[in-house]
Design a protein that fits this description.
Order of helices and strands: EEEEEEEHHEHHEEHEEEH
Strand content: 25-35%
Amino acid sequence: WREGESYYIEDLGSTNKTYVNGQPIVGRVLLHDGDQIGVGNSALKFFTGTSTEARYHQELINLATFDSLTGLYNRRHFMTLLEEECGRARREPVALSVIMIDIDFFKKVNDEMGHVAGDQALKLVSKVLGELAGPMMAVGRLGGEEFAVLCRNTSLADAAAHAEVLRQAIASREFRYEGTLRPLSSSFGVAAWQPGFDAITDLVKAADEQLYRAKGSGRNR
């Protein structure tokens, strides 16, 4: 706990004790930047948040969690979150949906306007997805021009409605690069966890199939 600018730790009578820098805690102990804390089989390190080492560790966390271009969750972290929710859906009767998103004709943007323009298109779509994400949603960039939205406690109908809101928002945003205005749209596939699904791959495959259906039937839908 914190008192003023100081932080303290205390063991409340645990069987295995709590350790700071290898020594068992007796009474309350003032923590210092870089202290090693042992709790059972877990090892923790305490940072005040102002040290160079703390900033270094935060940077490692950011690299492991977020996509550097868009600021959204990267594929690995997004799939970890989705796996956790799929595990919960296997155990409990909860609604779980996922939206897969693919920017239409993205290769043409890169080929005709350059990769810097392509990066700007990715950022624009990411901004829309992030701005419109609800409190029960997590947004990730899966790679290239593909994104996904994890919709916790959300039915298929509600997820599809949100996908339509996203579709309209992206299509209405002005995408301009070095004076050139270009239409930008995305295709969407939506799926919900169903009885009979066993793994994360079942849900992702179902959403992907709907995404391919949208792209095959004209895109921007």
